[in-house]
Amino acid sequence: MAEDSDVVDSENSFIRSPAAIMAAISGGTLSVSAILNPSKVTGLSLCPIFHMTGVECPFCGMTRSFVSITHARFSEALDYNIGSPLIYVAFVWMLFVSVRDLKLGQHKEIPSTPKWLYKSWLMVTITVFAWLFWSRWLSNLI
Questions:
Q1: Following DSSP, what letter does each residue of 17-36 receive, concatenated?
Q2: In terms of C-beta distances under 8 Å and separation of at least 24 residues, what long-range contacts does 20-25 make, across chains too?
Q3: Helix, strand or coil for residue 58?
Q4: How far, in Å, are 45, 56, 79, 111, 129 from residue 52 at the CA level?
Q5: With 0-12 CB in 10 A as exposed, 13-18 as middle and 19+ as buried, what is 27?
Q6: Alpha carbons 104 and 23: distance in angstroms, whole number
Q7: Does the structure show a pLDDT above 60 at 4?
């Protein structure tokens, strides 16, 4: 009987591990972007800030851009949101490292990324989204 509870505890710790959660979130996001039809989401706007203010936030167009990237419509994706390829690559990376860690049995820790890669990605991403914040939001207030 004790063996059965050990197996259940082991399965629960695996399913609730950081690597499994990251794999589910990133894999789910990428799967949904593959399922959606790019021509059907062109008019889609889920942003509450845009609906309240009429001004696009730095993240407006991210859903449409993800769908476009998944369907290899790269110029269309950049038109929706120029920063979304950076976030898309992060989701692909998170899926890769979390699945890798799950396969290796290293699922109890948050999957790691080399510091130089993380810092480089972060600097570029902050710069791009700061520019989007300025061009979409602050420039409209002046």
A1: SHHHHHHHHHHHHHHHHHHS
A2: 20/98, 20/102, 20/107, 22/94, 22/95, 22/97, 22/98, 22/110, 22/111, 23/94, 23/95, 23/98, 23/99, 23/102, 25/94
A3: coil
A4: 12, 10, 22, 37, 21
A5: middle
A6: 14
A7: no
Q: What domain range is 37 assigned to? A: 2-141
| Domains held by the chain: number | 1
Q: Is 21 exposed, middle or buried (0-12, 13-18, 19+ CB in 10 A)?
A: middle
Indicate the average pLDDT of the chain: 86
Query: How far, in Å, CA of 80 to CA of 84, rounded?
Result: 8
Structure tokens at 10: 């082991």
**pTM of the prediction?**
0.82
Confidence of residue 138 (pLDDT cuts 50, 70, 90): confident
Q: How many residues does the chain have?
A: 142
